[in-house]
Amino acid sequence: MESLLIPFLILVAVAVAVALTARALGRRRRTVREPAKPPTESAELAREAAAKLSEDEHRRLYALIAQGQAMAAIKLYYEASGQGLRASRDAVAALAAHPQPFRSSPAQESSEPEDDDEPPQRFPYRYRAIASKGDVTREVSSNMLNDEIYGRIRTLAKSGNIEAAATALTRHSDITMKQAREFIALLDD
């Protein structure tokens, strides 16, 4: 009988260890949450959310985001879009992470002729563009720049059209032509 007691105690200890391990794994599985949305999805969400706003709502929403008033921004988007509270929260978070310029609806765009002499649009946030080469670093900060405009300026600079890039940069910021040329010269990475 004594010869069976030790194997029986080992068997009980193994059974207890297996039960505790199974319980711990069960708790972990219950606490695993849904992964965050990839940035591409939130950028698309930001574009869709911006399209649902009028120009005045767009301006007020970004003013609230810039002031750090997230709850007021969510409330404004909730009232303007008619979406649910959770969808409004996600939309405002996407708009804050991926700032969108105001774009009028396609019907308005086709009726209004595009005029290049028109002053550039001012955004409710400041965009910072930084260029550096070696020890030299230049920064342009403006509320007339965004990713799209800066991308066009970089494309002009990389294609060798330095003057057009510098002109576009001065048009969308408050820097001189000389400063713009210095900035553009640093972009040829």
Q: Explain this structure to me?
A:
- The protein is mostly helical and 189 residues long.
- Among the domains are: 39-97; 127-185, no CATH class.
- It is 62% helix and 7% strand.
- The chain contains 9 helices and 2 strands, in the order H-H-H-H-H-H-E-E-H-H-H.
- The chain has helices spanning 2-31, 39-51, 55-66, 70-81, 85-97, 106-111, 147-158, 162-171, 177-185, and strands at residues 127-133, 136-142.
- The chain has a two-stranded antiparallel sheet with strand order 1-2.
- A hairpin with a 2-residue loop joins strand 1 (127-133) and strand 2 (136-142).
- Helix 4 packs across helix 5.
- The longest helix has 30 residues, at 2-31.
- It is elongated, with a radius of gyration of 28 Å.
- The model is unreliable at 107-115 (pLDDT under 50).
